[in-house]
Amino acid sequence: MYRYDKIDQAIVDARVAEFKDQVARRLNNEITEDQFKPLRLMNGLYLQLHAYMLRVAIPYGTLSGTQMRMLAHIARKYDRDYGHFTTRQNIQYNWIKLEQFSDLLDDLSKVEMHAFQTSGNCIRNISSDQFAGAAADEVADPRPYAELLRQWSTLHPEFSFLPRKFKIAVIASEADRAAIQLHDIGLQLRKNDAGDLGFRVWVGGGMGRTPVLAKVIREFIPVSQFLSYSEAILRVYNRYGRRDNIYKARIKILVNELGIEEFTRQVEDEWALLQPLALDAPQSEYDRIIAQFPDPAFDPAAPDSIDVSNPEFGAWVDQNTHFHKQRGYASVTISLKPPGGIPGDASSAQMDIIADLAERYAHDEIRVTHSQNLVLAHVRKVDLHALWTVLRAAGLATANLDLVTDIIACPGMDYCTLANARSIPIAQKIAAKFENDGAAQRDIGELKIKISGCINGCGHHHAGHIGILGVDKKGEEAYQLLLGGSGAEDASLAKILGPGFDENGIVDAVDRLIGFYKSARTGPDERFLDAYRRLGPAPFKDAVYV
Amino acid sequence: MPHILTGNRLETGDVLWWDGSDWTLHIREAALIEPAAIEALIAEMKPAERINDLAAVEVTVEGGSYRPTTTRERVRAIGPSVRPDFALPSLPVDTI
Ligand code: SF4
Q1: Mutate which: B27, B72, B93, vs A, most A CBs within 10 A
Q2: Closest CA to A65 of A405, A357, A391, A469
Q3: Residue pLDDT, tens place only, B28-73
Q4: A407, A452, A461, A482, best to mutate for ligand 1 pocket (most atoms within 8 Å of CB)
Q5: Does A311-393 match A142-290 at the fold level?
Q6: Which of A179, A208, A300, A506, by CA, is between 20 and 30 Å from A328?
Q7: B96 within a domain of the structure (yes/no)
Q8: Which ipTM did the prediction report?
Q9: Selection from A98, A118, A123 nearest residue A31 by Cα
Q10: CA of A337 to the centre of ligand 1 (A)
Q11: Searching chain A, which residue's CA lies closest to the CA of residue B85?
C-alpha cells in the first residue's frame, strides 16, 4: 500500500489547519453560512436532513487495518457507532457535529486520511477495481496509476473550480469491475502489440439526469504520458464545459455537443501544446510509487484445496470468493447486505473485526467496492474457514455477492436533502422476499438491483439490471422501474419500462419480473440481463403491468 | 394550512423547531406560525446565523400534535425510517 511521504502529509496537515480555522470562524460567527457552505463542501462536509454528513476519501477504495480501525473509532467517538460505505468507494458518517469537527480531522490525518475533494466541482476520489493486484486477469496492478492520479489531482490549482464534479476510474483488465464507462474519464490499462503498458482512454460517461456511456478517445496512451493526456482532457473540459447550466455542465454534455471527433481533436491539440511543459511524472516517481505496491509475501506452499464439507461455508466460498492470481489464495468479498440490513452500513465493532481479520489473514489490506461491499484481496484458501467463522459471528458472512439481495441503494430520503423518495426501505423489502432462501437466490443467479432516491443517481440505477429511481409524484414517494443496465464491460443504460409505482407496487413489480425471468430463461446460465437483452422489454412489461 | 418553523443548529446540525421564543428538539413543542408572518420571522432570525436552513414546514394538527405534510419533513422530525432505534418512543418511525 502507498504510504504518505512528507509532502503528502504536509499537504493534508496544511489543509486541515486551514479548514479548522474556517470552522472556528464559522462557530464564532465571523463568517456567514453563505460564506462557509462552499468551504465545508470542499472539505466533504454536507448538511443533510438530520445532521452534518461527512464523506471521507478512501483512495481507490484501499484501506489498511489501522485506517479501518480509525474509521471505526470515528464512528464510535463522533457519530452513532456506524458508517456507510458508498458507491464511490468512500465512507460517509451521518451524525457529525461541527463543534467536534476539528478533533475528527486531526484523528483522520493521523492515519493519512482526509475528506477533501469528496465534494465540490473538482476531481473526486479516484476509483478502481477492488481486486487490483490480486486479479488473475489484470495486465498489471492499476493502483500505482490511480495513486499518481490522486497526487496529480490533489489540490490541482487549475482544476479546483471545474464546471462540475469530475470522476475518474482506473482498471487493468477486460472485465470492468469499476464501471469505467460511466465515469468522466475511464482508464483501462492494457498492453500494445509490442508489450508496452498504456491506457485505453474513455471519456464522457456518467449517470445522473443525462446518462451516457463513455466513448474511447484513444486506444493507447503510454503509461509514461497518461498524466499529461489527462491534463489535456481536463483543460479542454475546464475551458469549454458549460457553467451556465448545472444540468449541462458535465463533460458528457460537452463531448456530446462537440461530437467525439471534434472533442478528440481538441484534446490532441491541447496535448501537443502541453508537451514542452514536461508535465508527466519522471520515471523515478513511477518507480517510487510502483515499489509501494509489491505483491504481498505469498506463501508458495499454500494448499489450493478447500474443505467445503460444511454446506453453509461452501455456499459462501462459491458466492463470495474470487479467483486469485496466486495459487492457494482467494479474494474474499465481505457482504454489507445482511438480512434486514442497510446496504453499505457497518458498525464500529464490525469495522474493528474486519481490521483485525485483514491484519491476521489478508496482508493488512481492505478494499471498498462500488457495490458497497468490502474485500480482503489476498487470503490463503486454507484460512478461509477460520475467516468465515469470525465473519459469520459478526453478521458479515452473507453469501449473496451479485445476487438479488446484494442491492445497491443510496441513502435516499432517510438521510439525503436532495432525495425524492426513500431507497433503503425498498432495498430491504425486495431483499426480504429472498434473504432467507440462499438456494432460491442462487437459482435466480446474477441480478444487480440498483436504487437511487433521486435523479442524481448515486445508487447507479441506470446501471442496474433492474434499476429503481425514486421520484416525487405530487408530494408522494413514487418509483420508476428501469431494466437492462450494466456497469460492467458489457455496459448499457437501463431504460424505463413503464408507469411508476408506489412503495409496495415497486416491490411486487420486481417480484413479478423475477418470476417471469425464471419462466422465460433458456436455462440457469442465462442471466436476467441476458434474458432481457434477448427478449426485449415487451414480455417483461407484460409480466409487470398485468 | 398551518406552518411551523424549522432549522438545523449550527454547532451540531440537530433538527430544531421554533417554539415561539426559543428552539426545541421536539416537534410537539413547536409553535404554529401565521403564513403571513413566516418571511419576516426568517428575515429577523437570519442575521444571528446560528441556525441553518431556516424553513417553514406545512403541518396538519392531529390530536394536539403536528404532522408535517411531506414525507421529507416527517423523516426530519422523526429520524431515518430505517433506524427505529434512533426514534423517540413517543414518535416512532411508523408514524412517518
Ligand atoms: S441519488 Fe439523490 S437521494 Fe440518493 S444520495 Fe444521491 S442525491 Fe441523495
Answers
A1: B72
A2: A357
A3: 999 999 988 888 988 888 777 789 999 999 999 988 889 999 999 9
A4: A452
A5: no
A6: A179
A7: no
A8: 0.96
A9: A98
A10: 19
A11: A80
